[in-house]
Amino acid sequence: MNMMTRGAEMVARKLGKHASHAMTYRRREGSSIRIVAAIGEVVTDTEDADGFVIRSHNRDALVDAVHLCEDGQSFQPARGDQVIDGIHVYEVIPIGGDPPWRWSDRRHTRLRIHLQYVGTE
User: Fold this and answer.
1) Which of 38, 59, 75, 93 could form a disulfide bond with 19, CB atoms 3.0-4.6 angstroms apart?
2) Which residues pair with 40 in a beta bridge?
3) Average pLDDT over residues 98-121
C-alpha cells in the first residue's frame, strides 16, 4: 500500500469519526434504516437553452457502503429516496446527467449520495 492510499484511508477514518452523525435513510417504498453520514455541499453551474448559467446548491451525504443494507441485502441509493437529518429532509437526486450517487473512493467503500433539500418533518 502506498503513502497516498494510506493517507486517503486515514482521512476517511477521521471523517467517519469526527464529521459524521446518525441519520435516517428512507427508501421510496417506505422502509427506513439508520446510517452514519457526513454532509457536504456541492455547488454546480449548468447552462440553460438560452445560455444563462444556473447555479444550484445541493448537499451530498458521504456514507460507508456497508451502512446501505436492509434485511441482509445491500442496496444502491435511488432517485426519490430520502435522507432525514434531524428534522431536515433531503431527497436523493441525480445532478445533471450523472446518477444520484457515485463512489467517493477508489476501493468502492464509501458513496457520495447527491441530495436536495425538500423540507422538514
Assistant:
1) 38
2) 60
3) 91
What distances in angstroms separate CA 6 from CA 3, 87, 104, one per listed residue? 5, 36, 15
Distance (Å, whole) CA 38 – CA 26: 17
Give the closest residue to 106 by CA, choosing from 41, 12, 43.
Answer: 12
pLDDT tens digit sequence for 49-80: 999 998 877 889 999 999 999 988 999 999 99
Q: Which helix (H) or strand (E) holds 12?
A: helix 3-18
Contacts of 80 (CB under 8 A, 6+ apart): 28, 91, 92
